[in-house]
Amino acid sequence: MTEKREYRMEELARLAGITVRTLRFYRERKLIPPPRREGRIAWYDDHHLARLRTIAALLERGHTLNGIAELADAFDHGRDVGDLLGLGEPTEETPVRLTPEELADRFHGQDTPENLAAAMDLGYLGTDGDEIVHISHRLLEVSSALVREGIPLAEVLRAGARVREHADALAGLFADLVLRHAPEQDLPRLRPLARSVIEAELSLALDRRIRNPADEDRTRTGRERDGG
Asked: Which residues span the domain enclosing 213?
């Protein structure tokens, strides 16, 4: 077990590569949590050091102090990783641990407090100390790829929320089907069959959209006419 280290203000500032004056400024702006007090002495720990290094990295990437303050607030009040994972690790998805600066690199500065909150509400992101945890490596890769293609992250997250609704409905359909005709313990075994059906149907649907884009235009016009 690693022993917890603590630092006085001067040592923390030196390790973080900043001045004591800058450290006081960050503390006043609430960019870092309050130190532990022992009489008149303030003690800082590795959590404070990690946060200061994150601030420096985000500043290098073009974030403003106001933006970093908003991110820090969202980060400190975000969902805990225990809430994100619920009763256990995903059975087929691999969670990914990221620092805030790694997340900023992934999404090219679109990791705003609004997008961070939306991703946490959706259940994509949780926090664990100074790390961010994404629930799925595959979803993280796809989301960042869509942003690289020029699609705003906010729209990617809105689409993700709609996909989640349809995915829940499809999972319910297959679960009901299996439970009506097979023992409950067969549900995990039949899971690959359900996934194959969904992947095949999605592939065929994309073929139809690519070959007949006018069908999507008619569908969209119909939704708008009906107020959908």
From this structure: 182-225
